[in-house]
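Let's study a protein:

===
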Amino acid sequence: MSKILKKGKFKIIKRITLIALILGLLFTHFFTPRLITEIRNPLVSLIKSNKVKDFDIAAKSIENINRKELSITSFDAIKLSARLTFSSLDSTKGTIILLHGIRSNKNAFFDLSTFLAKNGFNSIALDSRAHGNSDGQFCSFGVNEKKDIKSVIDYLINEENINNIGIWGQSLGGAIGLQAMGFDKRIKFGIIESTFSDFRTIVDDYFKLHVGFSFKPFSNYLVNRAGDIADFDVNDAKPLTYCENITQPILVVHGNKDDRINIAYGKANFSRIKSKHKEFLEIDNANHLNVWAIGGTPYFDKVLVFLNEQQTIRVKSNNIQIL
């Protein structure tokens, strides 16, 4: 009798183990890749919230700075939400597209847009597709987003009569910025902060960061599945490749204590950039999230020097063309 009971228990354990294994494989195949690319999946939201916080523009706008909410249609009919902030000076030095990190939104740049306006620059803070108030479900890590930037530039030129456009991107936004600069030469200059060089590599890094070990074949499998689900070419999500086509002036910034995206990736991107006017700025003791706080006033002073230098470079370039 006891042998029969033991056999019965063993069969139950085997069945439970088999069911758990099948469920685990199904979860890994269908759901886990969505953690990478799907921003608005309700199940993903239980793990990582991307809810846009309430934001009262009227209460925030103490200074007399002119702002304008925009809705821009991208190449695939996605509606992109953006906020255009105008220079508060009599003349405008340029217009800067501001690109946030993953699961953030354009409101992260409200104070920065005020700072830029006071120093003579327009800025357009963009909700990347699937973020904030923009349409879409998936992030493609620059593959589609660089084309979104092209649509934004088209809009600025055709609808707002704005030229001399630059870009400033953080983390994911930096990766998008590099790809956009290599893709569209109408971007005249760029500031790129704390970004990666290759989508596959950074997914493997994040897997190791959160799980404690790395297994490249498995992370590559997740990347390929994520690309299939979100319908984009994962091999094109490689800022390092686009860096080889960047000839515009650029400032690349990275904290040397960044444990999310290693500074080595920032340096690798920088080494591939073809521009004659490029600079790498290492922020000592800064991690992935506090470059601005650690860099402080000296950092923003450095950024202003870079931005103001673009006016001199532009004038010289125009004079050469005239001659």
